[in-house]
Design brief:
Layout (H helix, E strand, L loop, with lengths): L5 H134 L1
Length: about 140
C-alpha cells in the first residue's frame, strides 16, 4: 500500500522549515515592521492633531478676546466721537442763536427809530393834512 519513506519525509520537513524561516525573514518580519511603523505613525498623527485642536481652541479664544476688546474700543471711540459732535453742534447752535438774537435786537432798534421818524414826519405834516382835508370838505 502506502510506503512511508522517512528520508523523503525528513527532506519535506527540512524544506518546510526552511521555507518558513525564509518567509519569516523576507516577508512576515518586514510586513510586521511596516504595520508597527504605520500604527506608530497614525498614533503620532492623532496626537499631533489633538495638540493642534487644543492649540486652535486656545487661538480661537485669544482671537475672540481680541475681537471683544476691539469692539469695546470701537464702541468707546464711537461714543466719544458722538459726544464731541453733539457738543460741537450745540455750541454752533448756541452761537447762531446769539447771532440771530443780536440781529433781531438791531432790527427792533432800527424799527423803533424808523417808527419814531415816521411819527415825527406825520406830526410835522399834520397841519398840512388838516388844511387839505378842510378844503376838500368845504368843496363838497
Amino acid at each position: 500500500m502506502l510506503d512511508l519513506n522517512p528520508g523523503l519525509m525528513l527532506f519535506v520537513l527540512v524544506v518546510f522549515f526552511s521555507l518558513l524561516f525564509l518567509l519569516n525573514q523576507m516577508l512576515f518580519q518586514p510586513l510586521l515592521k511596516f504595520m508597527d511603523d504605520r500604527d506608530a505613525s497614525i498614533a503620532k498623527d492623532l496626537q499631533n492633531a489633538e495638540e493642534m485642536a487644543d492649540n486652535s481652541d486656545g487661538l480661537n479664544a485669544k482671537a475672540d478676546a481680541l475681537l471683544a476688546d476691539a469692539r469695546a474700543e470701537a464702541n468707546a471711540i464711537r461714543e466719544k466721537a458722538t459726544t464731541e459732535a453733539k457738543a460741537l453742534a450745540e455750541s454752533k447752535i448756541e452761537s447762531k442763536v446769539k447771532e440771530l438774537d443780536r440781529a433781531y435786537q438791531t432790527f427792533l432798534t432800527e424799527l423803533s427809530s424808523e417808527q419814531e421818524a415816521l411819527k415825527n414826519s406825520l406830526t410835522s405834516q399834520l397841519p398840512t393834512f388838516k388844511e387839505s382835508l378842510h378844503t376838500k370838505l368845504k368843496s363838497l
